[in-house]
Amino acid sequence: MLTLSQFQPHRDGQTLDTAIIQQALDQATEQQMSLKIEAGDYLTGALFIASHSRVEFEPGVRLIGSTDLSDYPEIKTRVAGVEMQWPAAILNIIDGEDVVIEGSGMIDGNGPIWWARYWGTDQKGGQRKVYDAKNLRWIVDYEVKRPREILLYRSKNCVISDLTLTHSGFWNCQVTYCDQVEIKQLTVKENNGPSTDGIDIDSSTNVHVHHCELSCGDDCIVVKSGRDGDGLRVNRPAEHIEIDHCVIHSGYGVTLGSEVSAGINDVHIHNMVFENTDCGFRMKSSADRGGTIQNVIAEHLEMRNVQFPFSWLMNWHTQYNHKTMAVTTEMPPMWAAVASQIPLDQQKTTVKDIVVRDVTATLAPDYAKESRAFDLKAFPEKPMQNITFEDCHLVASEFGHVVAVEGLLLKQVYVSVQRENDQQLEKFDTR
């Protein structure tokens, strides 16, 4: 086993160690040896891990992301469902095979610096304000480039375990075009910035996420398969996904979408705990999008103080999803890729064959937010189909909405609704 200390890194968290760490990674791979990274603070830009590598973080290791965007070379990648040139992540596995990254170290992305560039220090300014004023909400997330913390891209047979991810500039851990990936015992915390998703499973197959703990500013664990026209061009589904035994403390829970052009199939979500989250099990898309979400089982879920246990919105966040420009030869390639639409006759996402069972959702007596047991909304011309809820016990301030759902089966579903105006407790029993 090689150790990083053999290469004499600075380890002071202030002097860039990128070249030294990369040299150690490359030499360990060439010699077919594992690399151990000892305790210390390492300031770094993008690092690239080759096939057949094993990297072990000792307790007390902290990789600190550089705040200089030039330390993250632009690579061919996919961002929020669209292929483009974008900055590499802090840790990158690209076209890799048989890679293990493990140990109880931390990656700190220096997020507040990147978040301020996006939306200012008050979440009302920055480049977001500039683009909003030009009616360009749909492109600003791509234009304001921010590093991710871990990227697995076109790789297979990889394991990520035990790390702590915090203060990510953008998504924390992205898995795109991969097969046979296991992510376990990952902790994601202190991510209160824009688009700070926890774990994004994007057009990948046979992915298992388990025994993780997450606190995010956006979706905590999310499955995607490409955005609009560019996603349909690539046409790689996300399928055979298992998510289980995770604890989610804040954010938008477990989400399917909103980029679903190539479809999502065969997802099993089970034995999960949600505490003080905005959503529990979430699905989202928009009228401009297509694809199919099907064959999903969500079971054995415990939700405490969850505002929307089931938020399934097929026309979610229209300002973000609806483009305000047609594709032209004059616009930048990235803009054209984002603006690309799918054919009109393929728009509106199909949702079918979803089973939810054994769910308990409770609210503390002092819970202050308005909550909905159900928020299920599709389109009359393309309703959700074959949706089953079984053995669910839910407490909320209102029952919510069920719009355009065909073949809805509620079996042993109990909803207790507390209405503020008269403090009367209403119970809905669907036995």
TrEMBL record:
Superkingdom as given in the UniProt entry: Bacteria
Ranges that cross the membrane: none
Alphabetical GO biological process terms: carbohydrate metabolic process
Matches recorded under Pfam families: Glyco_hydro_28
Keywords annotated in UniProt: Glycosidase, Hydrolase
A Gene Ontology molecular function term of the record: polygalacturonase activity
UniProt-listed InterPro entries: GH28_Enzymes (IPR051801), Glyco_hydro_28 (IPR000743), PbH1 (IPR006626), Pectin_lyas_fold (IPR012334), Pectin_lyase_fold/virulence (IPR011050)
Family: Belongs to the glycosyl hydrolase 28 family.
Protein name: Glycoside hydrolase family 28 [Lactobacillus pentosus]
